[in-house]
Design a protein that fits this description.
heterodimer, A: alpha/beta, Peroxisomal Thiolase, Chain A, domain 1, 2 domains, two-stranded antiparallel sheet, 13 helices, 14 strands, about 20% strand, B: mainly alpha, Non-ribosomal Peptide Synthetase Peptidyl Carrier Protein, Chain A, globular
């Protein structure tokens, strides 16, 4: 028999703060997190903007000896995991570490480390490549590091599916507890690829917005004047816990995991299926997994990247999945506010979705000025709304055609 | 700065240990908390800072503060 799984802790590292309440308030207020990149010289780059975290100092969180062996994405992952653990009030002395696992997602892994060491190779030769290069760069090291820091000895691995990575991580963690392989899981994702090489690569794909003269208006999913996504960075971590286990220790339960749906477009390496077929199949699979009806869905936190084709495809997928009910769903895009966290997006946006379910609020999609006739659903433009949110979906889709849809429901005992 | 002082400072910086623990007989791995990767980094740092080349079979013998100082002195012909 499948076991019930609830969310009992959340942690975030974001351009809008490190505290869940502050982060969600900023989302509700539609406070913009996009600005000019300051970390490196963007002169030669056609993209000069990102949701860059300016105030993160590893020395605030780690001893020097520790952080110099951690790529930025792992630093973000560890800080978010620590917040989530504290938020859950789990006493690590009193839970079974063998039954406590970690699944994290990262699309790329330690990009800064990769670049630093490649530079050493070219400039100083192979003998100068750091022995820490590989264990700092591999995308699974975040999950490994979390396990070592808190001695969590249960299932531990990393999912890599580009921008859907942490959707898959959370989904797999949910299944792990459902089927009895663990009682508690830290699940989430982290990404830190605001580097010159990564921005150049995404930029040359024509995936990124070039609205350099007006960064705050650059990420505008579903708006007619959108011109690509804005790179973001950060981490989101959730504590998923078996229901009885959570009740027994008197945990605060934020929401209940209700279902997951994974699918593939099987069409193109980067372009979404124009009809949103993969998105539709993922959402309906999650609804089916939860044993509810499409009409039960109140809210969808979309993948909503602000790319010209992606937003139309996702809109088409929602219409195909929900029919007449599509126009009654409160839809939004967290990426309009903080940019696109790639492998971190699924987890950070799921935190926003859980807060929606918990508080009956839906944060806005900002920068909605000129409607796109092809995107004609209710995207919660510019101002947050209060409404009943009992069931909500969080979508993430990745290059390679990977789709993930996570369904959460209000916890009602 | 003497070679001893410079070696000690590199070790303190790389391994994050205090001055009192950096004594000649201190082993990088057994006393100063280094793992095998940290000792490789340490040797790289010696090569950079003293502009010398340390071969792999030589590096294997540099396991304590004292062996590092002696080896580097010898390399620099002092």
């Amino acid at each position: 028999m499948k076991r019930r799984v609830v969310v009992t802790g959340m942690g975030v590292v974001s351009v809008l703060g490190y505290d869940i309440e502050e982060f969600y308030k900023n989302l509700l207020d539609g406070k913009n997190g996009v600005s000019l990149i300051e970390r490196w010289d963007t002169t030669e780059h056609s993209v000069k903007i990102a949701g860059e975290i300016k105030d993160f100092d590893p020395a605030d969180h780690f001893e020097r000896n520790e952080y110099k062996r951690l790529d930025r994405f792992t630093q973000y992952a560890l800080v978010a995991a620590k917040s989530a653990l504290e938020d859950s009030k789990i006493n690590l002395e009193k839970v079974d570490g063998d039954r406590f696992g970690v699944i994290t997602g990262s699309g790329i892994g330690g990009m800064e480390t990769y670049q630093d060491n490649h530079k050493k190779l070219l400039e100083k030769g192979p003998r100068r490549v750091s022995p820490l290069f590989i264990p700092m760069m591999i995308p699974d090291i975040a999950a490994g590091r979390i396990s070592m820091k808190w001695n969590l000895r249960g299932p531990n691995y990393t999912t890599v599916s580009a921008c859907a990575s942490s959707g898959h991580a959370v989904g797999n963690a949910y299944r792990t507890i459902q089927y009895g392989d663990a009682d508690i899981m830290i699940a989430g994702g982290a990404e830190a690829v605001i580097t010159d090489l990564a921005i150049a690569g995404f930029s040359n794909m024509k995936a990124l917005s070039t609205r350099n003269d007006d960064p705050e208006k650059a990420s505008r999913p579903f708006d007619n004047d959108r011109d690509g996504f804005v790179m973001g960075e950060g981490a989101g971590m959730l504590i998923l816990e078996e229901y009885e286990h959570a009740v027994k220790r008197g945990a605060t339960i934020y929401a209940e995991m209700a279902g997951i749906g994974f699918s593939s477009d099987a069409k193109d390496i980067v372009a979404p299926d124009p009809e949103g077929g993969g998105a539709k199949r993922a959402m309906l699979a999650a609804i089916n997994d939860a044993g509810i009806k499409p009409e039960d869905i109140d809210h969808i936190n979309t993948h909503g990247t602000s790319t010209p084709t992606g937003d139309i495809a996702e809109t088409a997928g929602i219409k195909a999945a929900f029919g007449d009910h599509a126009s009654k769903i409160a839809i939004n895009s967290t990426k309009s506010i903080i940019g696109h966290l790639l492998g971190g997006a699924g987890a950070v946006e799921l935190i926003g979705t859980i807060k929606a379910v918990q508080t009956n609020t839906v944060h806005p999609t900002i920068n909605q000025e000129t409607p796109d006739p092809m995107c004609d659903l209710n995207y919660t433009p510019n101002k947050f709304i209060e409404r009943k949110v009992d069931y909500a979906l969080s979508n993430t889709f990745g290059f390679g055609g990977h789709n993930s849809s996570i369904l959460v429901k209000k916890f009602k005992g | 700065m003497s070679i001893e002082q410079k070696v000690n400072e590199i070790i303190m910086d790389e391994l994050g240990v205090d001055e009192a623990s950096v004594v000649p007989e201190a082993s990088f791995i057994n006393d100063l908390g280094a793992d095998s990767l940290a000792t490789v980094e340490l040797v790289m740092k010696f090569e950079d800072e003293f502009d010398i080349k340390i071969e792999e079979d030589e590096a294997e013998k540099i396991t304590t503060v004292g062996t590092a100082i002696d080896f580097i002195k010898q390399k620099l012909g002092e």
